[in-house]
Amino acid sequence: LEREVTQSTKLEAVGQLAGGVAHDFNNLLAGIIGYAELLEENPSLATAVRDDAASIKRAALKGADLSRSLLTLARRNTRRDELFELESMVRETVDLARRTFDRRVEIELTAQDAPTIRGDRSLLSNALLNLAVNARDAMPDGGALHIRTQLAPLDEAFRTQHALPTDVPIVSISVSDTGVGMSDAVLEHVFEPFFTTKAPDKGTGLGLAMVYGTVKDHRGAITISSAEGEGTTVTMYLPCASDVVSALVPRSQPAMARTR
Ligand code: ADP
To answer: Which parts of the sequence belong to the Histidine kinase domain (predicted)?
Structure first.
């Protein structure tokens, strides 16, 4: 529990910093990107110069990516609130991963239960994509990436431990890979903003911090189990929309009635 408190304090600090800086930073980068593009496309310049301009543009685009991530962290309390079907969101995200990932990463989807969720569809899709990207990065020579959604048969103790609501069913979305896994030392820090073991041009260390923030904002929880050299499973737990709970709960269980 102590770790959770520290975690959210760090997220808040990053969020505040980001709110003040990322927006202006983005405007500066837009200038750099625009002028680099003009140089890159100027036919009267030598090819070597235009190549250098292209490199400047690429680096600035990376910076823009990073500041977008920071803005996502900063805007944690302005998320959208909509009802959506989990299954279509997950399928779309998996399709995107299938189109863009190395073919040696085999992506399997098992959508056993995929209920209606209330929250920000695009933030949750982004969170899932982040987990899939991490899974891919953990398997540089290829492997199996399995995404599963199912209603979680959770006991009270688990819900209490992770501060999950007790009045609605919980759906779990897990992302498993057969990759390198994590050491205990890495596991301990993975949710911290800016913690990364990847090369500077590859990782920002904001992926899991963003996923954590998004899941928490949806009154959910996240767990990781990992074994070095074997693989990792990251599971997000999300409360189902209470508006539609009656459709999911068998009639024999009136105790789970809709409360908000
Ligand atoms: P980034 O991906 O930019 O490094 P993240 O916050 O998403 O930032 O991840 C932090 C670190 O956690 C990674 O650098 C990596 O060491 C570790 N990690 C995350 N997901 C996995 C995974 N599926 N398998 C192995 N290591 C992982």
So the answer is: 20-242
Could you tell me how far CA 208 lies from the centroid of its own chain? 6
How high is the pLDDT of residue 256? 44
How would residue 203 be classed by pLDDT, with cut points 50, 70 and 90? confident
Find the 243 Cα to ligand 1 centroid distance in Å. 35
Interval 170-199: pLDDT, tens: 999 999 999 999 999 999 999 988 899 998
Judge if the beta carbon of residue 174 lies within 6 A of ligand 1: no
Instruction: Supply the residue whose CA is at minimum distance from atom 8 of ligand 1.
Output: 205
The SS3 of residue 67 is helix
- Answer yes or no: is the C-beta of 195 below 6 A from any ligand 1 atom: yes
Report the C-alpha gap between 229 and 242 in whole angstroms: 40
Q: Is the pLDDT of residue 146 over 80?
A: yes
Distance (Å) from CA 191 to ligand 1 centroid? 9
Q: Is the CB of 192 under 6 A from ligand 1?
A: no
CA distances from 76 to 70, 97, 99, 249 (A): 10, 25, 29, 31
Tell me which DSSP letter residue 240 carries.
P
More confident residue, 58 or 257: 58
Longest Cα–Cα distance of the chain, Å, equals: 77
Residue 212: other Cβ atoms inside 10 A: 24
Output the six-digit token pair for 259.
């409360």
Task: Provide the percentage of residues in the chain whose pLDDT is more than 90.
Answer: 59
